[in-house]
Design goal:
Layout lengths: L10 E5 L6 H15 L3 E5 L6 H10 L7 H13 L2 H9 L3 E5 L2 H10 L4 H5 L10 E6 L2 H6 L11 H12 L6 E5 L4 H20 L10
Parallel strand pairs: 1-3, 1-4, 2-3, 4-5
This protein binds 3'-deoxy-3'-aminothymidine monophosphate.
The site of 3'-deoxy-3'-aminothymidine monophosphate has 10 residues, from helix 5.
């Protein structure tokens, strides 16, 4: 489909622990959709290009300190500042592949000990993904993958807590994919799921908001 006025694109989110393969799979999905001639864009959160995003980036690389609530709200603001663009792109027929979204926001902050419902609240009203592809990996396996980059949160103990927080966020839009499979096998599974999701959106599935 070339995505006319009457058909919208799908909002596809990839989630998972650090080093689970999200970034590789996101760009591979994007290439797949381009190959099909389907209008698609690749996004990621945090979006470090905005001024809010630069504050987040500086926090993650330990160049600045912020308390846990403040950084949580900045991550959320970083999604809110892109909300209207996201909506107009989807409505004009473009599928958006997003590397991390609100689930990362809740999973990482609640893993620090912040109240789960407090963490969810600022995400309320952002666009709800049509499908969430969760690349599931045991934290020990993720840690073996060439080591972490040294940013905040990239530690085994913490990633274990993040995984538990993610488990409390599952809903019907989630597909759990075993991230320890060969890259090509994961690619195939994701392509199949996303293809179906695009079809459902094209046929009129309505766009909803979190946390539905
Ligand atoms: N992260 C990401 C959060 O803590 N909250 C959020 O809302 C988002 C989107 O930022 N360790 C964390 C997860 C990652 C880190 O992400 C940077 P990436 O995908 O490595 O750029």
């Amino acid at each position: 489909s070339s995505g006319g006025n009457d058909s919208r694109g799908a909002l596809v989110v990839l989630e998972g622990l650090d080093r689970c393969g999200k970034t590789t799979q996101s760009s591979s999905l994007h290439k797949y959709l381009e190959g099909l001639g389907h209008p698609a864009e690749l996004w990621r959160f945090p979006d470090r290009t905005t001024s809010v995003g630069q504050m987040i980036s500086s926090y993650l690389s330990n160049q600045s300190q912020l308390d846990d609530c403040t950084i949580h709200l900045l991550f959320s603001a970083n999604r809110w500042e892109k909300r209207s663009l996201m909506e107009s792109k989807l409505k004009s027929g473009t599928t958006i592949i997003v590397d991390r979204y609100s689930y990362s926001g809740v999973a990482f902050s609640s893993a620090k000990g912040l109240d789960f419902d407090w963490c969810k609240a600022p995400e309320n009203g952002l666009l709800a993904p049509d499908v969430v592809l969760y690349l599931d990996i045991p934290p020990e396996k993720a840690a073996e993958r060439g080591g972490y980059g040294g940013e905040r949160y990239e530690q085994l103990e913490f990633q274990m807590k993040v995984r538990q927080s993610y488990q409390a966020l599952h809903d019907a839009s989630w597909k759990i994919i075993d991230a320890c499979q060969p890259v090509k096998d994961i690619e195939k599974q994701l392509q199949e799921i996303v293809f179906k999701s695009i079809e459902t959106c094209r046929k009129g599935k309505s766009l909803t908001c979190l946390w539905s």
